[in-house]
Amino acid sequence: MAVCVCAASLAMTACSTIEDPVARAIRKVTPYRVEVVQGNFVSKEQVQALRVGMSRNQVKDILGTPLIASVFHADRWDYAFTIERKGTQPQQRQLSVYFKDDLYVRFEGDDLPSESEFAERIAVPEDRKVAPRLDATPAELEKFRKNAPESATTAVRPSVPADKTYPPLEKP
Predict the structure, then answer these.
(1) Which residues contact 100 (CB under 8 A, 6 or more apart)?
(2) How many domains would you assign to the chain?
(3) pLDDT 10s digits, 43-52
(4) Is position 156 within any domain?
(5) What is the domain-level CATH number for residue 37?
(6) Cα 96 vs. chain centroid, distance in angstroms?
(7) pTM strictly above 0.85
(8) Is residue 105 part of a domain?
(9) How distant is the alpha carbon of residue 172 from its chain centre?
């Protein structure tokens, strides 16, 4: 009986070493991850455009609608921004704008990137495929013309009768 158990266990372990091509393909498939963007992105240029004494509407025109405008903190607007994109580091920014008598006074928050810095940070990683070259050299074009079928290289001209007359559009 012990010999049968050992033989069965050896047979089972031998089966596990066979590489199943379907199982290998399934392991390579990764689930789709949704790009999560929450809040308002506020750039360094936008904050630099703020001036002390601006009204709330002027600040809203520059920064956009605040994510949090609390009743308990009526003199403060909070802007928060997070982004998680596949292949890049998650980013999180926070900015608070303070008002006194409905006029802009100051801001506090994280060190904000410029618009170009932000675009670089969320750029697609380098391991993605590069776009193909869309121009051809004269030698490549000539090679194509030689290998192309006759119908591809000759222009198709519609056949129009030479002296065709048409009836008038309106009655005389």
Answers:
(1) 75
(2) 1
(3) 889 999 999 9
(4) no
(5) 3.30.1450.10
(6) 28
(7) no
(8) yes
(9) 63
